[in-house]
Amino acid sequence: MNRRDELALNLEEVRRRVDSACVAAGRPPEDVEIITVTKTWPASDIEILAQLGVQEIGESRDQEARLKFEQLSSLGLRWHFIGQFQTNKANRIAQYADVVHSIDRLNAADSLARAAIHADRIITALVQVSLDQTPTAGRGGATSEDYLKVAEAIAQSSHLRLGGVMAVAPLGDSPDVAFGRLEELVAKFQLEFPESTMVSAGMSEDLVEAVAHGATHLRIGSAIMGSRSYVQ
Length: 232
Ligand SMILES: *Cc1c(COP(=O)(O)O)cnc(C)c1O
Fold this sequence. Notes:
Layout: H1 3-25, E1 33-37, H2 43-51, E2 56-59, H3 62-72, E3 78-81, H4 90-96, E4 99-103, H5 106-119, E5 123-128, H6 147-156, E6 160-166, H7 175-192, E7 198-200, H8 207-212, E8 217-220, H9 222-225
Helix pairs in contact: 4-5, 5-6
The structure holds pyridoxal-5'-phosphate (PLP).
Pyridoxal-5'-phosphate (PLP) binds near residues 221 and 223.
């Protein structure tokens, strides 16, 4: 099978899985958007995805993302930056990212806020929250003590728009339990920030649980692109 047919088939299959997860959760399928995570895959794949109607692209490494963006800037895609980043990368990320999902501490919020002003762009920023029961154990994210402060810093910035919350299910934990915790946290968050309705949660392996617990944006890599040949 050629790459175009393979990607088309995978996209269809993932959309079917998402739609049936929505039906099972009693949610309208159009409430859940798929971001295709293309890290480690070439720009030529993203061109094919664009021809197949994909607009939302997720990347997690600045250097790789920026090279692809520069090659493909004429396609008018929306670029989601989903990886951890050092504050010294904020100026570069602000030049191409439309949405940054991974703001997990105050200095990341502050550096992106300054970078967005410098780039003269309005960027949607999400607070990444930790779902680990023992903080610092795992996959990044602000703790339940910190995330509202990080959100406040984003909300007060002139060039960042607070989109909502992002989370990664901890390794070795049940995604259902982890995303149940996320759902409670989002309920509290939305009392403070009712307009920030994005919930970025769910990857190839746990998208059904994420949809059941209120995800609005899924970040899907391998189920669409195939298995990555190296781990990031
Ligand atoms: C790689 C990555 C994904 C996609 O993971 P898959 O399991 O390939 O779907 C989602 N979110 C983040 C933060 C990632 O780094």
